[in-house]
């Protein structure tokens, strides 16, 4: 009995030891599998990694370094007078110093920031909403079969093909108060000339109109592609069930365009929020500062103000980036709540 008991104890001890050894072996095997999985992934997709690496490197140099430099400058008092510079054979060392978050406190406490932010938001909402509405209407029209559809498509895409600054200069000529074509047409109809670019209200209307002109082709093409991906059988079945045109649009077209719409609205919002060329080339932020948006104010701080305030401009730029990131996060969360994956 004693021998049997000792043997059973030994077996039990051996069994526990075996289990622990096996567990340690499985743990090592799992770690090895993880390392092996990563190694296999690198070995399998080395070509993809090799192709992506130069792009990541270039983006890091072109975007990452200026962004990091801008964030650093926003924490200093750098301006035209205290940055490092070379005059002839003499090099003057930089004397600006670290000031922490003082620049952010100054900008956020300045009433100018709130004024620029309000107009920037209004400008963005107006441009994106009008652009989306017109783009959707034109996309629905071009999604039907009719004579000359290709010619109409080319004509409507033309503003997108012309360089933006060329279009803005053309519109600036059209809006000229004394010799502009628009006022000539109005004058022929007995209507007095409109100060398109000289009155704050009309100037805001003008910049919105030009930005819509530039943005509608992209919106139309993107939504037209989305419309063509909706199965035609859905419309046929709805028509057989007696659905009206509005019901088909509401219950088939809009849900079918949801994924495309969410993407183009996000892109259009970011582009419009930072739309520097239209504002700067058309009105220079005027008359006065009535059409200044956040990004043109940042430009003014760095290149127009005297002395040029590099730290202040960087602060405005970082705040713009922060606002867009907050908007993107909120937008993404709202899409997830609606069941969209983004």
Overview of this protein structure:
There is one protein chain. This protein is mainly α. 75% of the residues lie in helices and 2% in strands. It is built from 14 helices and two strands, in the order H-H-E-E-H-H-H-H-H-H-H-H-H-H-H-H. It has helices spanning 2-44, 46-73, 102-109, 111-142, 149-161, 164-174, 181-188, 200-228, 232-240, 245-256, 258-273, 276-283, 294-303, 310-337, and strands at 85-87, 90-92. A two-stranded antiparallel sheet has the order 1-2. Helix 4 crosses helix 8 (200-228) and helix 8 (200-228) runs antiparallel to helix 11. It starts with a helix and ends in a 5-residue tail after the last helix.
Task: Give the tags.
single chain, 342 residues, mainly alpha, two-stranded antiparallel sheet, 14 helices, 75% helix, 2% strand, globular, disordered N terminus
């Amino acid at each position: 009995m004693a021998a049997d008991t000792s043997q059973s104890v030994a077996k039990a001890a051996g069994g526990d030891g075996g289990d622990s050894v096996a567990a340690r072996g499985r743990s090592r095997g799992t770690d090895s599998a993880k390392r092996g999985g990563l190694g296999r992934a690198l070995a399998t997709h080395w070509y993809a990694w090799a192709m992506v690496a130069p792009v990541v490197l270039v983006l890091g140099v072109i975007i990452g370094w200026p962004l990091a430099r801008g964030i650093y400058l926003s924490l200093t008092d750098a301006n035209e007078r205290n940055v490092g510079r070379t005059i002839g054979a003499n090099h003057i060392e930089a004397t600006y110093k670290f000031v922490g978050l003082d620049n952010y406190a100054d900008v956020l406490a300045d009433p100018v920031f709130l004024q620029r932010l309000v107009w920037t938001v209004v400008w963005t909402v107006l441009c994106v909403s009008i652009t989306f509405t017109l783009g959707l209407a034109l996309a629905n029209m071009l999604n039907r079969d009719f004579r000359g559809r290709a010619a109409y498509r080319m004509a409507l895409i033309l503003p997108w093909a012309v360089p933006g600054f060329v279009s803005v200069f053309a519109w600036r000529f059209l809006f000229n108060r004394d010799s502009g074509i628009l006022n000539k047409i109005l004058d022929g109809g007995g209507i007095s000339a409109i100060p398109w670019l000289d009155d704050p209200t009309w100037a805001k209307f003008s910049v919105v109109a030009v930005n819509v002109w530039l943005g509608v082709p992209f919106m139309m093409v993107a939504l037209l592609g989305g419309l063509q991906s909706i199965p035609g059988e859905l419309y046929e079945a709805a028509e057989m069930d007696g659905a009206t045109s509005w019901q088909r649009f509401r219950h088939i077209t809009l849900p079918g365009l949801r994924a495309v719409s969410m993407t183009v609205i996000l892109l259009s919002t970011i582009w419009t929020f930072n739309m520097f060329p239209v504002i700067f080339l058309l009105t220079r932020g005027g008359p006065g500062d009535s059409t200044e948006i956040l990004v043109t104010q940042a430009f003014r701080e760095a290149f127009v103000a005297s002395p040029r305030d590099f730290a202040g401009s960087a602060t405005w730029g970082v705040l713009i980036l922060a606002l867009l990131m907050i908007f993107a996060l909120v937008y993404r969360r709202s899409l997830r709540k609606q069941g969209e994956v983004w």
